[in-house]
Amino acid sequence: MSLLGCALVGFFLLVAVAAPRLAPPPAGSRDPYLMPQSGYSPDPVLPSQEHRFGTTEQQYDLYYGMVWGARTAFKVALSVVGSAALVGILLGGVAGYRGGWTDELVMRLTDVILAFPDIVLAVVIVAVWGPSLLHVMGAVAFTAWPSYARLMRGDVLSVKERDFVTAARALGASDARILLRHIIPNAIYPVLIVASLSMGRTVITAAALSFLGLGEPAGYADWGQLISLSRNWIMGSAGDPFAYWHTVFIPGAAIFLFVLGWNLLGDAARDILDPRQK
After folding, report:
1. Could you give the C-alpha distances from 259 to 26, 81, 98, 216, 219, in angstroms and in order?
2. Could you tell me the pLDDT band of residue 181, with boundaries at 50, 70 and 90?
3. What's residue 141's pLDDT?
4. What's the pLDDT score for residue 78?
5. What is the 3-state secondary structure (H, E, C) of the chain?
6. What is the pLDDT of residue 276?
7. In this predicted structure, what is the pLDDT of residue 275?
8. Which residues make beta-bridge pairs with 240?
9. Model pTM?
10. Is the pLDDT of residue 16 over 90?
11. CA–CA dist 237, 252 (Å, integer)
């Protein structure tokens, strides 16, 4: 299962890196993430030699959107999880080490944020800031960091009582050195495991916001938006429910496999990094 996860993530990473060769941007295009459009007909076109994966409504090329959408997925996953985990590690580490009013302030702030459903809070934030992929990433990161902070705080409370921390304090090490050199490196492994498992969930949340029209404008290479463009054709046409299967199945399968790959990779990271599994 670990090898399967590595293979899936590696495949999508290869597609993202090779996107300019697999789907070269049209000549004169100002933004390579904008999908080429071959017309304005509302009816999608089935896969053909001209369009390998067919087109969506408004005739956006689905193959181009899938290839460059892989880059968007990695950009969202790495940016959101990286920034949320960094904030959570720092705030949770300081709260657990300092204790007192610092701990109380940080934990009550996390309680307030965790009291709201993630997707609802993210929708409200993006609605206030305005629709864009950058705002979607910021909103999802804002709703994600409290989980990392609480997890980090719990491990810091345990690690700071260890003998090596007491020895470092007795040798005159500063609080910053003890926290950054001794405590965080020994308490960070559960956070890294959760971060790897959160990659796929982050992409699903961002895709849901794009599906609701809170991402980039129409035509941007994003898997969530591609599924949004297929909402009128999910049931196919009269008498043929699979007439436009490609508009839903292809981007849906990409999201499913991308998330599955990160979940399997996260399970492997847990087996490797968590000593309690042995």
Report:
1. 30, 14, 37, 21, 23
2. confident
3. 94
4. 93
5. CHHHHHHHHHHHHHHHHCHHHHCCCCCCCCCCCECCECCCCCCCCCCCCCCCCCECHHHEEHHHHHHHHHHHHHHHHHHHHHHHHHHHHHHHHHHHHHCHHHHHHHHHHHHHHHCCCHHHHHHHHHHHHCCCHHHHHHHHHHHHHHHHHHHHHHHHHHHCCCHHHHHHHHCCCCHHHHHHHHHHHHHCHHHHHHHHHHHHHHHHHHHHHHHCCCCCCCCECCHHHHHHHCHHHCCCECCECCCCHHHHHHHHHHHHHHHHHHHHHHHHHHHHHCHHHC
6. 56
7. 56
8. 237
9. 0.86
10. yes
11. 19
Rounded Cα gap, residues 170 and 153, in angstroms: 23
* 132 φ, ψ (degrees, to nearest 5): -175, 155
pLDDT of res. 10:
94
pLDDT tens for residues 52-76? 888 888 889 999 999 999 999 999 9
Tens digit of each residue's pLDDT (9 = 90 or more) over 127-154: 999 888 999 999 999 999 999 999 999 8
- Cα separations (Å) of 153 from 82, 104, 197, 237? 18, 11, 19, 54
Spans of all domains in the chain: 2-23+51-277
In the prediction, which pLDDT does 278 show?
A: 56
Residues whose CB falls within 8 Å of the CB of residue 195, separated by 6 or more in sequence, listed in order:
81, 85, 148
CATH architecture of 2-23+51-277: Orthogonal Bundle (1.10)
Counting Cβ atoms within 10 Å, is residue 140 exposed (0-12), middle (13-18) or buried (19+)? buried
